[in-house]
Amino acid sequence: MLMIDLFSGTGGASQAMQDAGWTTVRIDMSSSARPDVRADVNHLPLKRSLKPDLLWMSPPCTEFSDARPGPRDPPSMELVIACIRTIVDLRPRFWIIENVRGALPWLGLAPRSFGPFYLWGYFPPIGGQLRRGAKHTATVRSAKERGRIPYQLSNAVRLSIETYAGRCMPQRPTKQRRTLPQLFRYYEEDR
User: Fold this and answer.
1) Taking the mean position of all CA atoms in its chain, how far away is CA 22?
2) What is the C-alpha separation between 46 and 1, in angstroms, rounded?
3) Model pTM?
4) What's the start-to-end Cα distance of the chain, in Å?
5) Contact 92, 57 (CB under 8 A)
6) In the chain, which residue ranges form alpha helices assigned H by DSSP?
7) 92: Cα within 13 Å, side-chain hemisphere
8) What are the pLDDT digits (tens) for 18-73?
9) Mean pLDDT for the chain overall
10) pLDDT digits (tens, 9 = 90+) for 2-30
11) Structural domain tally of the chain?
12) What is the largest distance, in Å, between two alpha-carbon atoms of the chain?
């Protein structure tokens, strides 16, 4: 199975997949994150013939974070629109956009959350055991460590996809299911 981890950071989202023998491609702009591919999301060197089983995208949460005090300007949706563009171009079997609670007003209700990690997208049901043991990020000092996707979440996503991969849909859909209608509207306006 193939997973593309976009905005991979420390690689937490793809760690369980990599441990299970999936082919994983970690993409990030920062060389300090040690990605497999260092690239800007607006200029990805990916071929349309590449059909990932999972496309995981964790755009930086600084635009949406409600941790900053005082009034805020509306967030830039540029990176989220780039994620939507990547979904449309690659047509992955399953996809997830992960971000923080502060993104709810802009991205709509998230179908799944795990502690401070909210998931939007098209993916099979993830096990209910995730509520227990949610990471409490208030005690973590490093922003990099606070943003790291917990292994328990990565592994639960892996298990759900491996369980449903053969049953959910025998072929890839010709059109993506529009679970984020606002984002697609933004994408269409951007074209």
Assistant:
1) 17
2) 17
3) 0.78
4) 32
5) no
6) 15-19, 78-90, 104-107, 143-146, 151-164, 181-190
7) 26
8) 999 999 999 988 877 788 888 888 888 777 778 899 999 998 887 777 766 666 77
9) 78
10) 999 999 888 899 999 999 999 999 998 88
11) 1
12) 49
- In order, the DSSP letters of 30-73 are -GGG--SEE--GGG----TT---SEEEE---GGGT-S-S-S--P
- Give the number of other CB atoms < 10 A from CB of residue 45: 9
**Domain residue limits at 126:** 2-190
59, two tokens: 């755009």
CATH number at residue 86: 3.40.50.150
What are the Cα distances from residue 84, in Å, to 77, 89, 98?
11, 9, 13
Burial class (CB in 10 A: 0-12, 13-18, 19+), 142: exposed
What does the alpha-carbon distance between residue 43 and residue 58 come to, in Å, rounded to a whole number? 17
DSSP reduced 3-state for 184 = helix
